[in-house]
UniProtKB/TrEMBL annotation:
Organism placement in taxonomy: Bacteria, Pseudomonadati, Pseudomonadota, Alphaproteobacteria, Hyphomicrobiales
UniProt protein name: Uncharacterized protein
Superkingdom of origin: Bacteria
Length: 138
């Protein structure tokens, strides 16, 4: 993915905390042991394939403003290619970050465009509907 000016990770390393990385035996919610202070990866050159393949939607979408950077919202926006879900994966310390007005408005807009939208926090998940209603996934 080509870099967009002003869209660097900087101090954001929420993906290194919120996402599960089975190759590193790192469960979702635990900070990766290779995450450097101030952001960045201590094993970047030798990072596992799942980390190499991960593309942060915030970094690749010009429409997502600086305020939507994952560490600022507490939620990582991502596409799930296996289920075609549009997801907001929340920082475990902010499980309802998807409900903040800025993130929620974005998720409802995605639902209105016809996408299946799901917010996740740990083992809990919620479906967001085009109407703005939401409810737990079963």
């Amino acid at each position: 993915m080509p870099e967009i000016p002003g869209k660097a990770c900087g101090e954001c390393s929420l993906c290194c905390k919120a996402l599960e990385i089975t190759e590193l035996v790192k469960p979702a919610g635990d900070l990766c042991r290779h995450c450097a202070d101030g952001g960045g990866c201590g094993i970047y050159a030798a990072r596992p394939g799942v980390c190499r393949e991960y593309e942060c939607l915030w970094k690749g979408d010009r429409a997502l403003t600086a305020q939507m950077r994952p560490d600022r919202t507490g939620a990582i926006l991502m596409e799930d290619p296996e289920s075609d879900e549009y997801r907001a994966v929340c920082d475990p310390s902010k499980p309802l970050a998807w409900r903040t007005p800025l993130v929620f408005k974005h998720l409802v807009a995605k639902a209105r465009s016809g996408r299946l939208v799901v917010a996740k926090a740990g083992l809990r998940s919620w479906r967001i509907y085009a109407s703005g209603e939401w409810g737990p996934c079963v």
